[in-house]
Design brief:
The complex is a heterodimer of chains A (about 40) and B (about 475).
Chain A lengths: L2 H35 L2
Chain B lengths: L7 H8 L2 H19 L2 H32 L7 H35 L4 H29 L21 H9 L1 H20 L2 H33 L8 H35 L4 H29 L18 H9 L2 H30 L7 H5 L2 H21 L1 H5 L4 H20 L1 H4 L9 H22 L5
Helix pairs in contact in B: 1-3, 2-3, 2-5, 2-7, 2-8, 3-4, 4-5, 6-8, 7-8, 7-10, 8-9, 8-16, 9-10, 9-14, 11-14, 12-14, 12-18, 16-18
The chains are: A mainly alpha (about 40), B mainly alpha (about 475).
């Protein structure tokens, strides 16, 4: 694997982990508020 | 303070969209007031009809002033100007009647302590007729000054440079007023709802924030297509530098709309489960909405400057470098494979999340897995929202990488139209009272099944349209 391809792979992993991580954290908090106060 | 009109033409451009697009949104709220039997909502709408009726005065005088300023100008179609004027007189007369009927209905309700159903329906009928007239007046108005709408059709091999049709400028001209005016009325309604502490009005305003955000996407995309239509080949009166300045703000508006619409949807979703609003969240949405409104006002002003030299001031410092601004810089950056591929990957994750969520909800509504109550399925809808937000962000970045090619692909416009239909139809799943009460073992109503089929077909259309982009 060339250095350029390695950089692309690392960028893909970094961006996907950041976006999905932020989204997962948001959805976790959202569900928590409903679990604690919902009916 | 260049946003404050300094000429009749500028005032007319600004104020004339409210009696048409504004009337459409107030009518929407008014009909929602009928459906929910909410007196506060009906009263607020009557007052807004009254205000729109009063707006007929500045619309008429600014129009007359603009006509005097445009008289004899070679690039103005004088016949069209006269048609616009005479049909406009009918439209404004109808608007004044709607306003007067609304004020009378409100005034009578003060004595009778309740609104008269008959008077309310008279206002509804008059407002619908006025709206039909106003649509014609607006269209004639756009035809007056937008010479590009009368240019001969472009010819040449498919997707060759210089073949982006001028129709996109026309579509953008119409479409951009919906998120802007809709958002303005949603904000006004929202402020009144917060002051009156009326939950139905709060929910309705949040819904219009979401709809405005959804409509922001086709508005942005048709705006990009208009840029190609107006600059390739170049038209002497149109400045690419001015367009880029408008695009910079439009990108910010799109993200502002996504934040406001996303936050509004989350609060609507939470309301379903909690049965009440969180004041803190409502004020966060208000803050998002006010910031977005300010950015959108500047975007609209910059958009108006592109093809309305009459609203430019001698003191305006207009840009001249067509390569300056954030948007051209982002275009260069995203064209690099190291940035493009990660966002494309995020886009595919987003698609999977949207389609997965839609499939589960649609299948339950259609009668699969009836043992699950709808309220349980409702819990997974935020995953779909996350997918939509991821794809708006990544999709617009990808569009910037090669907008001429994307916009001129056959399947791009249907894809964007299906996105708007799909998201607005999904909104039904978040709001429907009948679906919310579907318990385990119960069948969903037939109307909900029809919406479910529409949602499924729309999102299939989005995926097929997207996948075919490089090939058809």
């Amino acid at each position: 694997m060339s250095n350029d391809n390695l950089m692309i792979l690392l960028m893909v992993i970094a961006v996907v982990v950041c976006v999905l991580g932020l989204g997962a954290a948001g959805i976790y908090c959202l569900n928590k508020t409903v679990d604690q106060n919902g009916h | 303070m260049h946003l404050i009109p300094h000429s009749w033409s500028h005032l007319h451009i600004l104020v004339s969209v409210f009696p048409s697009c504004g009337l459409m949104f107030v009518l929407g709220f008014y009909i929602a007031g009928f459906v929910t039997k909410n007196e506060g909502m009906k009263q607020t709408c009557l007052a807004l009809f009254g205000v729109l009726g009063l707006l007929a005065i500045p619309t008429y005088f600014s129009g007359a002033g603009s006509m005097a300023a445009l008289d004899g100008k070679p690039d103005v179609d004088q016949d069209m100007l006269n048609y616009h004027y005479y049909v406009g007189l009918f439209g404004l007369a109808a608007l004044v009647i709607v306003g007067a009927a609304a004020w009378i209905a409100l005034w009578r309700s003060l004595g009778a302590k309740q609104l008269s159903d008959q008077a309310l329906k008279v206002v509804l009928g008059l407002a619908i007729v006025t709206l039909a007239l106003m649509v014609v007046v607006d269209e004639l108005g756009w035809e007056v000054h937008h010479f590009e709408l009368h240019l001969p059709p472009k010819e040449g091999p498919y997707m060759a440079p210089g073949t982006t049709p001028e129709t996109w400028s026309h579509v953008h001209m119409i479409l951009n007023h919906f998120p802007t005016v809709g958002f303005t009325f949603a904000l006004v309604f929202y402020l009144i709802a917060l002051a009156m502490n009326n939950d139905v009005m709060k929910r309705s305003s949040l819904v219009v924030f979401v709809i405005s955000a959804v409509l922001g996407v086709p508005t942005y995309v048709t705006g990009a297509a208009s840029m190609w239509a107006l600059t390739d080949p170049p038209i002497p009166q149109i400045s690419k530098a001015l367009i880029n300045e408008h695009r910079d703000m439009a990108l910010l508006t799109l993200f502002g709309l996504a934040f406001t619409g996303g936050a509004a949807w989350i609060e609507l979703w939470r309301y379903r489960h909690l049965g009440r609003f969180s004041n803190r969240s409502l004020y966060v949405i208000l803050a998002f909405a006010i910031i977005t409104f300010a950015v959108m006002a500047e975007t609209g002003h910059r958009g108006g400057q592109i093809n309305h030299p009459e609203i430019r001031l001698a003191t305006d410092a207009l840009p001249t470098d067509p390569k300056a601004g954030w948007t051209p810089a982002i275009e260069l950056l995203i064209n690099n494979v190291i940035w493009f591929v990660p966002w494309q990957t995020v886009h595919f994750f987003g698609f999977s999340m949207i389609f997965g969520t839609v499939l589960v909800v649609v299948l339950r509504v259609l009668g699969f897995a009836k043992s699950i109550p709808f309220s349980a399925v409702h819990r997974i809808l935020p995953l779909g929202l996350l997918g939509v937000l991821m794809n708006v962000f990544s999709g617009m970045l990808m569009l910037l990488a090669d907008s001429f090619r994307y916009l001129n692909e056959t399947t791009f416009a249907p894809k964007i139209a299906f996105i708007a239909i799909g998201v607005i139809a999904v909104l039904y799943f978040s709001l429907s009272e009948r679906l919310w009460t579907v318990k385990a073992g119960e069948d969903a109503p037939a109307s909900s099944k029809a919406v479910a089929v529409l949602v499924l077909l729309s999102w299939c259309g989005v995926i097929i349209g997207g996948r075919l982009l490089p090939y058809v």
